[in-house]
Amino acid sequence: MFPQDPLPDAPSAASPLLVHLNPEQLAAVTLPAGHALILAGAGSGKTRVLTTRIAWLLQNGHARPGSILAVTFTNKAAKEMVARLSAMLPVHVRGMWIGTFHGLCNRLLRAHHQAAGLPQTFQILDTQDQLAAVKRLCKQHNVDDERFAPKDLAHFIANCKEQGLRPNDVQGQDSNTRKKIEIYQLYEEQCQREGVVDFGELMLRSYELLRDNDHLRAHYQRRFAHILVDEFQDTNQLQYAWLKQLAGNVVDGRYQAHGSVLAVGDDDQSIYAFRGARVGNMADFVREFGVQQQIKLEQNYRSYSHILDSANALISHNSSRLGKNLRTTQGPGEPVRVYEASSDLAEAQWMVDEIKQLLRSDGFEHREIAVLYRSNAQSRVIESALFNAGVPYRVYGGLRFFERAEIKHALAYLRLLENPQDDTSFARVVNFPPRGIGARSIEVLQDAARAAGCSLYDGVSAVPGKAGINLGAFVALVDGLRAQTRGLNLRSIIEQMLESTRLVAHFCTEKEGADRIENLQELINAAESFVTQEGFGRDAVALPLDEHGGAAPPKPPMPGIVDADTGETLSPLAAFLTHAALEAGDNQAQAGQNAVQLMTVHASKGLEFDGVFIGGMEEGLFPHENAASERDTLEEERRLMYVAITRARRRLYLSHSQTRMLHGQTRYNIRSRFFDELPEAALKWLTPKRQSFAALASHSGAGSAYSSSARQSFGFKSAGAESGVFAHLPVPPRKGAPAHGLAAGIAVFHTKFGEGKVLALEGSGTDERAQVHFARHGSKWLLLSVAKLTVVD
Question: Is 151 a catalytic residue?
Fold first, then answer.
């Protein structure tokens, strides 16, 4: 098939390149020529293997710098590889092709721009530039952006290119698809005319260049005797096809190559199917390339064995895997701690308490602690708990909850209800969602308001023509919304605002809008949690109006929040807006500050921490409800959990809650089936262990409704019929007063407000509340089912 270079006789253990390698790593580095697959487990030193392999090939004369092509997935990884090679050997690394798929394709197209049909100075569009180009095209051709949202069109085009499809290759099954194909064709013509390419075009044009030019393809096949591919499990269909063009030609179903392809990856960490990654490429590579050499890197240098045993046991339930088991010589370490909370609020508070313990008694640093979650919307409750506890934190790879664009839009509408003179909020949403009010109209309004010495809101009547009509319609929307929400509680105000302003409807048209909608629903949860924790009560009127139509302060006996600076009693709406502003700006860690890290599991890949918390481990959340019934998607969820577990070095904490506010509703939760797949010997249950997922599901059939007997095993009362496991259910009332031992005159302690004295008690069950006077915060009504009051002896 191709010449086989023999292994050197007994590689010297004293070789500076090889001295620090374990036997598996040494075997991978010193492989003979030929196609090979390296299954590199988490924390097994794959970057060291890749760079040492290249250095070994060069040092031993098996390759020249110009004959090596190394592909990575991030610029950071490529730079790290180049830096390590420069430190290992006195070689000129510029001769090597080391970079990302897109970077190498750019290099190829620059060198052969004429053959690729591109100008020498072609420009590259990033994702924002591409979206702007699509928007410009839609406007030019009068495309209905309500029916064909630009973001959706950009995603359609990118998806076609990932599959190697030009417009005439796409099947138009219906009128909508045919219209998208037409726009795709217009977009291609526009890009060609302007001499620009997007990221998808870099790959597709490069692939077509090699596919359609025999002499060019043969040249690069001869040149690149050694092709090394990192993170092979994350390659998509087009990237794999591109690699095959460079690797050789198909003869009798096998690839005949002039050199060697070394693929390094971990099929157990393939978690990007939603981006087009295809885990099956690894098995296809083994079959199509006739791979004879497979080496497993199973020695883990990151975690203790209790953590690794949990990861191994979990992932063994996936059937579609090549198979490996991580091991370590570091010993068992601490067991994996498992906690069952009564609610998501209790779960977040438990996390904070454990984090404080790690910081205070175990010598952990803030930056070495991570909280991972399956959904971005989960971060809000955790952020609030950390904020209240004064623990600095940073949302990795994203924005804190109250800083997210969709949340800031919603808060701006709420601020206009509270104060229509707020020019900042007015400017933010006057044309969001789009309502035909452009930059020029805003300039005219600003000039009119400045001349009259009034707010933008009050200056609208001075703007003439169509601009004035559109601006007037916006003012009417806000005025109408204020009238509609008169006398409503905070939750109802937000729900009405989201409907009237069409914020949710707007994001429904975006391909990536699901997360934004989820966050807007979480804003409702945040508001309801706030009014209960602060003692207003769920049904408190949030925006009372006086007889003149303006906002008025709440009247007794309704509890309020006192502004520490003015002494003014704030309405629930005003208090919530103040709370949101403080959380958005007060406790956010600055760049480089020592802070607890918050992130989604997807964002955590490639990172590691001393302590890791994985929250929300419930059916319908992790694994996600969209994946629970399909084998392939469930296996991806399990790989995602595997990635989460293997981020932990020293301590791992898993938690789930009996009830959770999600998507604007309170619902019961069955704990994740993943708990059943973890080894008991590695776990420490901090709360009594409940029935397994399998046992609970069997009460009414797997995947069917969460039965009353299953609910009762959690101590819940019956809540009536449900339509499915993940049905949104009301929280049932609890009979009888809780045994809290409180009475008027008793001294109590609150974690946020400090010591206080109980003045009065009212209500019963989950609605029971206490009026407590705190020395520093005054009198507050606190819901006892939420507030943590401790009797002071």
Answer: no
Read off the pLDDT of residues 263-322 as tens digits, 9 standing for 90 and up: 999 999 988 887 788 888 999 999 888 898 899 999 999 999 999 999 999 999 999 888
Ranges of beta strands (E only) in 268-325 are 293-297
Indicate if 9 belongs to the active site. Answer: no
Roughly how many angstroms between the first and final C-alpha of the chain, as a whole number?
Answer: 84
Please tell me the class of the 123-194 domain: mainly alpha
**Cβ neighbourhood burial of 151 (10 Å; 0-12, 13-18, 19+):** middle
Mark whether 712 is an active-site residue. no
User: Token pair for residue 226?
Assistant: 């050694």
pLDDT at 585: 52
pLDDT digits (tens, 9 = 90+) for 406-439: 998 999 999 898 888 878 788 889 999 988 888 8
- Per-residue model confidence (pLDDT) at position 562: 43
Neighbours of 372 (CB within 10 A): 29
Per-residue b/e over 261-296, b at no fewer than 16 CB within 10 Å?
Answer: bbbbbbbbbbbbbeebbbbebbeebbebbebeeebb
Predicted local distance difference test score (pLDDT) of residue 78 = 83
Q: CA distances (Å), 257 to each of 229, 238, 554, in order?
A: 16, 19, 79
Which residues participate in the annotated binding site for ATP?
40-47
The per-residue pLDDT for 777 is 65
Of 198, 230, 234, 406, which is the active-site residue? 230
Residue 13 three-state SS: coil
Alpha helix (H) residue ranges in 362-489: 379-389, 405-418, 423-429, 439-452, 456-459, 465-484
Mapped onto helix, strand or coil, the DSSP state of residue 112 is coil
Tokens 């702007």 correspond to 132
Task: Answer whether the bond into residue 433 is a cis peptide, omega within 30°.
Answer: yes
239 with 285: CB under 8 angstroms?
no
The architecture CATH gives domain 336-400+595-690: 3-Layer(aba) Sandwich (3.40)
Which contiguous run of DSSP H or E holds residue 71?
strand 68-72
Q: Is 378 a catalytic residue?
A: no
Q: SS3 for 431-466, per residue? A: CCCCCCCCHHHHHHHHHHHHHHCCCHHHHHHHCCHH
> One-letter amino acid identity for 91?
V
Spatial distance between the Cα atoms of 19 and 492, rounded to a whole number of angstroms: 67
Backbone torsions φ then ψ of 156, nearest 5 degrees = -60, -45
Catalytic residue of the set 152, 231, 340, 368? 231
Owner of token pair 């804003």 = 523
Q: CB 331: neighbour CB atoms within 10 A? A: 8
Those residues of the chain that have pLDDT short of 50 are: 1-13, 545-568, 586-591, 700-738
Q: What is the pLDDT of residue 686?
A: 94
Select from 699, 698, 720 the least CA-distant residue to 709: 699
Structural domain boundaries in the chain: 25-113+204-297, 123-194, 336-400+595-690, 402-585, 747-791
CATH topology of 25-113+204-297 equal to that of 123-194? no
Specify whether 330 is catalytic.
no
Looking at the chain, the number of H-run helices and the number of E-run strands are: 27, 25
User: Residue 772 in contact with residue 750, Cβ under 8 Å?
Assistant: yes
Region 25-113+204-297: CATH code: 3.40.50.300
Residue 293 falls in the annotated catalytic set: no
Is the model's pTM score more than 0.85? no
Between CA 641 and CA 628 the distance in angstroms is 14
- Determine whether domain 402-585 maps to CATH 1.10.486.10: yes
Q: What is the pLDDT of residue 266?
A: 93
Q: Which of 53, 647, 650, 690 is the catalytic position?
A: 647
37 neighbors 286 (Cβ within 8 angstroms): yes
Beta bridge partners of 683: 336
Identify the pLDDT of residue 87.
86
The two structure tokens encoding residue 57: 């090939």
Name beta bridge partners: 263. Answer: 37, 229
> Closest by alpha carbon to 320, among 644, 641, 635, 676?
635
